[in-house]
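Per reviewer request, we include the raw input and output of the structure prediction for the construct analysed in the revised manuscript.
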Amino acid sequence: MECHHHSNAHRLLHLMDQMRHRQRSPVMGQIADLNLSFSHMRVLRLLAPANELAMKDLAEQLQLTPPSLTALTRRLVQSGMVERRPHHEDSRIVLLRLSEAGRDLHRRLYEEHVQRMQDLLAALSDEEQELFLDLLDRAVRALDDYEPVTG
């Protein structure tokens, strides 16, 4: 039985790789040109709903040390996607927010992802979409219950 699960995991990994390889687009091209990584995109996603966040709070959400976050955000600041500023009451606190360009990039990336998911789901009937999403939801929720032991 273990072998069957193993091959299914390989199949899922292969399918996800295929989805990623089909991700060539103007927005992804811009992200590559700016030399931004998946981690940079996570920062944009976390900053998007907030007006601004303290570095300390963002580091906690990303489970990074403040120095690691500083290194990660340096590229975003240099590329003009994120702005840093001191807190008006406590200058030791550094606040981060998306610039106009950062908001635009995040919005276009999000819209593109939604379009890709619509294209993916379009190959399935309404009933199949419901079943696919219910199964995926159950699998994702099961991940919350499964805490792997890390050394």
